Amino acid sequence: MRVHLTAAAIESEAQFHAALREASGVEWYGANNLDALFDLLVGVVHPPIEIVWTGAAASRAAIGERFDRLVAVILDAVAYRGGDAIRFKLES
Description:
92 residues, alpha/beta, three-stranded parallel sheet
C-alpha cells in the first residue's frame, strides 16, 4: 500500500481516515479512530506500506493536536512491524 497524503487533501482527522481507507482497498476499516488505524497498519494491510505526508506542517495546523496522535500511532505501527514493513515520511 502506498499513500501520499497532502495538506490540501487532509484538513481533518476524518479526511485522513478516508484517505487511508481508500488507499488500503479495505472495505471495512472499522471506526475512524486511532485503534482502527493501528489495527489496519499492523494486522490488515500486507507490507510493504509506505506513507508520505506532504505539507505536514499545514495539516498539523488544520488538524491540531490530533495530528500528533495520528503520527504517534503510525510510528507505533512502524515500531511494531519494523521499518522494512512500514515506511513513514513527513514532509513540510
